[in-house]
Amino acid sequence: MATAADFSVKPSEIDPIDVSRKELYVEDTWQEAFRQLREHAPIQWVPESEFGPYWSVSKHKQIQHIEALPKIFSSAWDKGGIAISGSPELLEKYNMREPMFIAMDPPQHTGQRRTVAPSFGPSEVADMKAEVQQRTAELLDTLPVGETFDWVQKVSIELTTGMLAKLFDFPWEERHKLTEWSDFGGDVELIKDEGNIELRLAKMQEMGAAFAALWQERLANPGKDLISVMLQSEAMKDMSPEEFIGNLILLIVGGNDTTRNSMSGYAYGMSQFPEERAKLEADPSLIPNAVQEIIRWQTPLAHMRRTVEENTDMFGPLMKKGDKVVLWYISANRDEEVFDDPDAIKVDRPNARRHLSFGYGIHRCVGARVAELQLHTLLEEMGKRRLRVNVVGEPTRVPACFVHGYKRLPVQLSHY
C-alpha cells in the first residue's frame, strides 16, 4: 500500500459536496463550493452523483502529486479514462471504445505522445506564428465596431476551428464540422441519457469516417499535417478504427474547446476587471503573462479524472482500487495557498504560470504552446488596433462540469 504522509489532509469536516452538478457551471456559482472544499475537505468522498461515486480533489498540491503517480492513479480508457463520465459499465454496454493517448498509461502512452509531440514543438509553433497572425488580423478587420455580436461564434470558434483545419489539412469549406464534433466529443452530460449516448456515438462515427477518407488520401500523398505524421509513425500507423477515433476526439476537443474558451474567457474576464484591462492596454509587454493568467482564471477544462490502481492512504483517507478520482483543475487554479486573491484576474500576477489548466506530469497538454500562441496573437492584434471588447449581456455558459466555457457572449467593440 502506497503512503506519503507529506500530502495527507485532515478528515472531511463537511458533508459531501457534489461539484459535478451542471447547475454550478451554467449559473457560474461553483466558486463557493470549491472554496468550502479546499478549506474543509481537500479530498472528499462523494458517494452519490449522476456520474456515480468519486473522490473529489480540490487542492493544487494534492492534484500535482496524483498527476505525478500514473502507476497508482491510472488514466487508462478501459478503466474509465480521463473524464468523470467514463465507466467500464458504459464502455461494455455501448461499446464506447475510444482509446486515445491521454487516456493511456505508459508505455503505450509514451510512444503515441512522442509521435504527436514534435508537431507542437517550439520550432513548429514558431513556424505557425505568421499564419496565425494573418488569420487573426484578417478576422478582426471584419468585425463591426459599436455593434453587438456574439464573440464566441465570430471570434473564438472561427479562430480555433481554422487552426484545427490547418493542423489536420482538413477541407476548409467543411471546417464547421470540427466544431460540431468537438462539442459532441467533450460533452460529459450526454452519457446521462440513452438517446444522447447513441447520438454522440453516431457523431463520432461520422467524424471517424470523414477522417478515414483523409487517412487514405494521405497514404497516397503524405504531407506535414497531423494525419500524415500519425500514419508514418511506428506507434500509430497500425491504430484500430476505435483508437483513431479516440485520438481524433482528443486532438479536436483539446485543440478546439480549450483555446476557444480561453479566448472567450479573455473577452469576458477583461470586462469584469477593467483596471487590469487598462493595465494591459497601456503595457503590451504584459501580454505573455496575461495569457497565462487568463488561462488560469478561465480553466477551460474543469477537471481530469484518474482511477485508483492500488489501495492507497497517502492522503489520509483510504482510496481503494477501482475508485474514481476527480482532479478539479478549476479549484486548484483558485487555491489561496498558491495564488493571492485567486478569483481576480491580475495581468501582472508573478506566478500565473503555476496554473494547472494544461495538467501536470506525463499528461500535460501536448498542444499547450499552440493554445498560448493563438491567445497571445489575439491579444497582440487587438492591441495593435487599440480594440477593446465590451461585454453587453450575460454569457450563456456550457452546462457541464468538464468543458468550462461559453456558448454565447454578446459584446461590442470600441477603440481606446
TrEMBL record:
<dbReference type="InterPro" id="IPR002397">
    <property type="entry name" value="Cyt_P450_B"/>
</dbReference>
<keyword id="KW-0503">Monooxygenase</keyword>
<keyword id="KW-0408">Iron</keyword>
<dbReference type="InterPro" id="IPR017972">
    <property type="entry name" value="Cyt_P450_CS"/>
</dbReference>
<comment type="similarity">
    <text>Belongs to the cytochrome P450 family.</text>
</comment>
<dbReference type="Pfam" id="PF00067">
    <property type="entry name" value="p450"/>
</dbReference>
<dbReference type="InterPro" id="IPR036396">
    <property type="entry name" value="Cyt_P450_sf"/>
</dbReference>
<dbReference type="InterPro" id="IPR001128">
    <property type="entry name" value="Cyt_P450"/>
</dbReference>
<keyword id="KW-0479">Metal-binding</keyword>
<keyword id="KW-0560">Oxidoreductase</keyword>
<keyword id="KW-0349">Heme</keyword>
<protein>
    <submittedName>
        <fullName>Cytochrome P450</fullName>
    </submittedName>
</protein>
